[in-house]
Amino acid sequence: MRVLGIETSCDETCVAIYDDNIGLLTNEIYSQTELHSYYGGVVPELASRDHVQKIIPLISSSLKKAKLEPYQLDGIAYTAGPGLVGSLLVGVTVGRTLAFSWNIPAVPVHHMEGHIMSPMLEHNNLTFPFLALLISGGHTQLVSVNGIGSYKIIGESLDDAAGEAFDKIARLLGIKYPGGATLSKIAKNGKKNRFIFPRPMINDDSLNFSFSGLKTFAANTINKNNKDDQTISDIARAFEDAIIETLLIKCRRALKQTGLKKLVLAGGVSANCTLRNRMSDMITEIKGEIFYSIPELCTDNAAMIAYVGMLRINTDNCKELSITVYPRWSLTELSSI
Ligand code: KG4
Ligand code: ZN
């Protein structure tokens, strides 16, 4: 079975083709970061207009690259939510229209379900149940995953998402949007413990997160100090250490509370090497297993959408004809298969 995946939920136009015998045939990403960096964040109207221009050429070039004709596809999977309404509408409209005209099923996919399953693209030893730490620009969630569509959110951020906090502090440090990856690079030159930032909410029993206080603490530290290169690196280091340690403490607690031994790291922030190393050390300590993707499959991509589409291709909502987007869509609303 071959499924074409389309992802346009935010500021990346992505197209991929997944074949269940061979694996990924293509995984194309057109990033709009240049377009938005001037504004320091995603401008929704510009994002959707750019998706309109890029999506059809990207689908044509992906088919060409995979040496496939449309009749050789068995379905089209597209991100139906959550995300920016205008951006989602582009992918949903194109996905459903092409599927209708090519007479193949069109499968709406939940963006975060795509992230949860993404390590399965590379690791066929990843089996249910497991704990997923979803850390992206819009979400920070701990999810107990029992199967496809069987999700229990056991912890989440009460305010900013981890990626959002990375991007906001990066901006205050003078780093171009989206700053998460660059902040992490700069933090490598930072002196440990020159600044010590708070680890929010680690002393309560919950598995929830809050990053807004940490953000304010970082902003005040930036305002009070010189902006020389070493100080910028030291602040970046203190901030990254605080976020990672907070995520680590909550993950360890969630594994203990649920009795799960397998941990999946997913979403853009899971591309962070320091985080991956610290989490791997913790998992070795508890004799568990850890799974994460190569960096290009951690950040937004259509490979994960095509993969989930393949899993869900026979479900009922493939038959509906309406163009529907779900800008706010909880994982817990999904049906299990
Ligand atoms: O999953 P994703 O690509 O998009 C959303 O669904 O939000 O995540 C993007 C987020 C951005 O906030 C970006 O700064 C962050 O992931 N990110 C990182 C790293 N690479 C991407 N944050 C920290 N360290 C990284 N290496
Ligand atoms: Zn994402």
TrEMBL record:
Q: Which GO terms describe its cellular component?
A: cytoplasm
- Residues noted as binding substrate in the record, renumbered to the chain: L134, I135, S136, G137, G138, D167, G180, N272
Q: What is the reaction catalyzed?
A: L-threonylcarbamoyladenylate + adenosine(37) in tRNA = N(6)-L-threonylcarbamoyladenosine(37) in tRNA + AMP + H(+)
User: GO MF terms on file?
Assistant: iron ion binding; tRNA N(6)-L-threonylcarbamoyladenine synthase activity
Q: Identify the keywords attached in UniProt to this record, alphabetized.
A: Acyltransferase, Cytoplasm, Iron, Metal-binding, Transferase, tRNA processing
**Span of domain Gcp-like:** 24-307
What's the source species' lineage?
Bacteria, Pseudomonadati, Pseudomonadota, Gammaproteobacteria, Enterobacterales
Protein name per UniProt: tRNA N6-adenosine threonylcarbamoyltransferase
Role of this protein: Required for the formation of a threonylcarbamoyl group on adenosine at position 37 (t(6)A37) in tRNAs that read codons beginning with adenine. Is involved in the transfer of the threonylcarbamoyl moiety of threonylcarbamoyl-AMP (TC-AMP) to the N6 group of A37, together with TsaE and TsaB. TsaD likely plays a direct catalytic role in this reaction.
Entry's SUPFAM superfamilies?
Actin-like ATPase domain (SSF53067)
Q: Could you say which EC number(s) this protein's record lists? A: 2.3.1.234
The record's Pfam families line, in alphabetical order, gives:
TsaD
- Is Iron among this UniProt entry's keywords? yes
GO terms, biological process: tRNA threonylcarbamoyladenosine modification
Tell whether Metal-binding is among the UniProt keywords. Answer: yes
Predominant localisation class:
cytoplasm
Q: Which cofactor does it need?
A: Fe(2+)
